[in-house]
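Build the 3D complex.
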Amino acid sequence: MGAEGHADGTVGKALDVLDMVASHGRPVRFSDLLAQSDYPKATLYRLLQTLTHQGMLALDPDQGTYALGVRLVRLAHAAWAQSSLAPIARPYLDELAAKTGETIHLAQMDLGQVLYVDKRNAARPVEMFAQAGKVGPAYCTGVGKAMLAWATPEALEQALARQSFHRHTDQTLDTPEKLVAELQAIRARGHAFDREEHEKGIICCAVPILTRSGRVLGALSVTSTTARTTLAALEDQAGLTKDIAARIAAEAESWRFPEQS
Amino acid sequence: MGAEGHADGTVGKALDVLDMVASHGRPVRFSDLLAQSDYPKATLYRLLQTLTHQGMLALDPDQGTYALGVRLVRLAHAAWAQSSLAPIARPYLDELAAKTGETIHLAQMDLGQVLYVDKRNAARPVEMFAQAGKVGPAYCTGVGKAMLAWATPEALEQALARQSFHRHTDQTLDTPEKLVAELQAIRARGHAFDREEHEKGIICCAVPILTRSGRVLGALSVTSTTARTTLAALEDQAGLTKDIAARIAAEAESWRFPEQS
DNA sequence: CCGTTTGGTTCCATTATTTGAAACTTAGTC
DNA sequence: GACTAAGTTTCAAATAATGGAACCAAACGG
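Done.
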């Protein structure tokens, strides 16, 4: 984990530290962070101090532990409302969940990884942050492949470099070559499948959410299990899913520029 | 330097820019940001580029606008789960809401401002300012005053310096002196009131959430309107509210150090 | 009780990054 | 085709970050 690609500048390092604190999932002591990172003591210290002073981290003086700060929660609120597709897509996800009766995922791309920003479990809708924020691999999930298939060449290249190509199941596409070939097929077909590539028994059919100009905003998937259904049955829902994706895209675009005059 | 207090180092400036983008509530053009900040063109440009490269901002190439990035949502997930009292407090808020039938707010302090981290609406909800994820002033809200009343001298001083003391209503405490006097009364009494100091017709009774060592973790308020109830009636709930606050504090403390030999 | 370790904080000369005025490159107008 | 507005790049000077080492404090061990 220490080897974060190219942490440009001080800001990159600071954000790297932020991620490090976040990844622990609980307040961390200075020395834990020091052991984990390969920053020198003084450097890490000042980085932490700056972040704390900025409210991005909070130092618990009783325990000498660092936790993520409230300023992050505030920014998060804005990010959620503004940048993510989730608030726009909410009613559409409800509709799709109701019509298909299956689990629905809404995902966006985050530096080569898939970020699930919203979800509907076949039964019940969930709280804001409870589901948002989970990340997963791009190369072996339906939503990931759907987004990669329509990514720009540069974005694709960057993303490919960040994939681990770990062989989760015996269906996993475990080389860039296999993946690129699959992406072409997906583009031709218009939707992506997950053929138990990430988790045994889990299958899905995913479509990209595209602007009119063809840029990828995110992806939408209908997920189920081999026990309950088949890929062919899921594919029957692809038309509906694409329709929903198009409506989300349309609303996302109009929502972002209400001052068109 | 500019209007922003003390933006130490490059990281501070970058976060400042992040806030600036967040505050717009919608994607912003470079030139808008340039006009708003007093950073020189090139500086702001590189700052934005760094943040974008780091995934904290997202540049919409179609429109040339910047929005908050998905990495922020991911961090938010961690922040929400880890740093905020919200996940711990959730069941207690439910209980308090059920027993009082009024609106409940859970807040924490964010650089001199009040951050509402969770909320329960009354059976008959009232339109008001506070919302989860939103920030508000400290000097004229119940939760704000409750937290300030038990803040350390240093924290109080810093916070005071950041208050605007804008006179929202004719009940607003509009000078540091009045506020400090009120804080003393609050400490003596054990809970804070909001006597329509922020919004006309809105009253509340708030208590701090304190660790055993006396450190402020947050505050909890029971809020209503003058039309529906009185301060005295709200004060009757203070005991219950304090009890809930104590239970939240206890759980927050034990939750943070499960590895206690 | 004192020497030692552990965990955290500060110094400061060196080094590398950031800075920002100005020059430049596009797109878009008239 | 000249003129503008908006965004991008350059480069020497200014500034901030760096990190080895020294320092401090509290806990530990004999």
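The longest strand of chain B covers residues 216-225.
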